[in-house]
Amino acid sequence: MNLKFRILKSIFKQGFQGMWRNRSMGVASVASISAVLVILGIILILILSINNFVMDTTTKFDEVQVFLENDIDDGIMTKIEKTAMKNKGVVSIIFESKDQALENFRKDWGEEAYLLDGLEKNNPLPNSYIIKVEEIKYAENVVNSLKGLDGVEKVQYDKEVIDKLLMIADYIRVGGIVIIGILVFVSVFIISNTIKLTVTSRRREINIMKYVGATNNYIRGPFIIEGVLFGLIGSIISIFIVYFGYEYFFKLVNEQFYSLFAVFLITPKMIFKDITFIFCAIGIGIGAVGSIVSMKRFLDV
Amino acid sequence: MIKLISVSKEYDNGVKALSDINLEISKGEFVFLVGSSGAGKSTLTKLILKEEEVSEGSIYLNELDITEVPNRRIPYIRRNVGVVFQDFRLLPNKTVYENVAFAMEIVGAHPKDIRRRVPMILSLVNLSRKASSFPDQLSGGEQQRVSIARSIINNPPVLIADEPTGNLDPETAWDIMRALVDINGRGTTIVMATHARDIVNSMKKRVITLENGRIIRDEQKGGYELEVPNTEKHI
User: Fold this and answer.
1) CB of A68 closer than 8 Å to CB of A153
2) ipTM of this complex prediction, to 2 decimal places
3) CA angle A207, B147, A215 (to 5 degrees)
4) CA-nearest residue of chain B to A4?
5) What's the gap in Å between the CA of A220 and the closest CA on chain B?
6) In whole angstroms, what is the distance from residue B34 CA to residue B224 CA?
7) Is B158 within 8 Å of B191 (Cβ atoms)?
8) All domains of chain A, ordered by start, with CATH?
9) B111 vs A6: CB contact, 8 Å cut-off?
10) Contact in structure between A7 and A218 (CB atoms under 8 Å)
């Protein structure tokens, strides 16, 4: 127990010492890990922002509008309301009268609103219910339950727009995963090559350790610790670059275009935690796996 | 201490390096291994270190047949055999002190013992003042003394030296020999492969001569004599 602990302690000591003494060689590993993670970060932000935009937009279409026939009595209206409420996922039902509808039009049209003047007396717009649903997927049922009901003239929701948006979101998600997968694969390749270079240059060292009677685990340990430390440093550097770089970009966009684009962009604070976690995990993982894989060859001497 | 019973070694490329070697070296002996290049000296030391596997025969180290030892136990065999090479083989990123201490750390020695023993061994090889230097700041003779210090730090019963004076000038070579004799005097068995005619001739120790993978001479208090004329100049 005591012996094992002492050996473990000395492995850690060798690892930290090795990292410090081989720092010039380590710069290459750290730089390649950082570079890959920065690219990964940019793609991640891009995907998250597009996804954010799509999801944000679909929530704006999460309502069904039921246009009513003119002059129907309260009984029929209550029946429509009740039928709508029975559906799953319905959040609220708001009655919008003819007059309100016209008023909304005026607001939307702004300066051209004068074109609507004179319509008040013979308002062609129908009364309607605006039914909000929790999520867009519930809309279809609501529509089906109300279609053909007494007093209902037309049920409408922006199915096509939403379907398209959801499809785009799916594509982006799948595409994003594929791109990130390729990137991680490429980075493991690049980094294991870098580490292989480092290890090759230290092949002699490994050999000497074996002559002195070091076990494979004892030789491997410090190298893995070195790899993990280099990976960690690389990921910390890339976290700083991505976070502060993006924060700067985010501010710039906000100032230049006001909030036009900014609504679609994910805020830097939202991603900081995720990026820290993901990058550290990838950096450490690549460092450890890279060391293990590239050392394998030399240990079979 | 070391016993070879009809040992043969043929490399994968078909080169027959050793054939039918029978040899016994007792505890506390100092043995020179001589022979022209390619005679099989290095192969013999490699077999004792289990760096290469025998093709036939057995090698006993301290009653243990090392040819039967599985690969993962090799490190534990090597801890019982100190080894010194012509090219010193020091860890370049470690100081003199750390190079020597490393051999103790891998066996999990107590830090207190390391702190006590390393300076002791360094003073034995006259290197106390260089303890915090790195190998590339030392002369060849100094590097070789570090490597000797490292090889004996764990008190191995056997020390294998493969041309330890090969890269050194004659005067420095004698320094190293004095250190080895000193170590031998403390009870360590030493097997030294060498080309150094002067050293072998003046030491009057047991000399085993190899030629074409066979032992052609084995003499107590022998001298450096190769049957094939040796035109190479050695110290």
Assistant:
1) yes
2) 0.81
3) 35
4) B108
5) 12
6) 7
7) yes
8) 2-58+163-299 (no CATH), 62-157 (3.30.70.3040)
9) yes
10) yes
Residue type, A294: S
pTM over 0.80: no
Q: What is the DSSP letter of B72?
A: G
Beta-carbon count within 10 A of B62 CB: 15
CB pairs under 8 A between A and B: 60
In chain B, residues 121-150 whose CB comes closer than 8 Å to chain A:
150
Cα B110 from Cα A148, distance rounded (Å): 89
Closest CA to A249 of A267, A234, A275: A267
Strand partners, A93: A131
Nearest to A3 among B76, B102, B108 (CB): B108
Query: Residue B89, Cβ neighbours under 10 Å: how many?
Result: 21
Q: Measure CB to CB from residue A208 to each of B77, B89, B111 and give the nearest one.
A: B89
Domain ranges, ordered by start, for chain B: 1-80+157-224, 91-155
Optimal mutation site among A211, A219, A299, A301, interface B, most CBs of chain B within 10 A: A211
Domain B1-80+157-224 has CATH 3.40.50.300: yes
A95-115 per-residue burial string, b: 16 or more CB within 10 A, e: under 16: ebebeebbeeebeeeeeeeee
Give the type of residue at B16. Answer: K
Q: Where do runs of H (alpha helix) occur along chain A?
A: 2-21, 23-60, 74-86, 98-109, 139-146, 159-201, 203-212, 216-257, 259-262, 268-299
> What string of pLDDT tens digits covers the 301 residues of chain A?
577 888 888 888 888 888 888 787 778 878 888 888 898 888 888 888 887 777 777 776 777 888 888 877 888 888 888 887 888 878 888 888 888 888 887 887 777 777 777 777 778 788 888 888 877 777 778 888 888 778 888 887 777 777 777 788 788 878 888 888 887 777 777 766 776 777 777 788 888 888 888 888 888 888 888 888 888 999 999 999 999 998 888 888 777 765 555 566 777 887 888 889 989 998 888 888 878 877 777 776 4
Count of Cβ atoms closer than 10 Å to residue B2 Cβ: 22
Three-class SS state of B7: strand
Closest CB to B106 among A17, A22, A212: A212
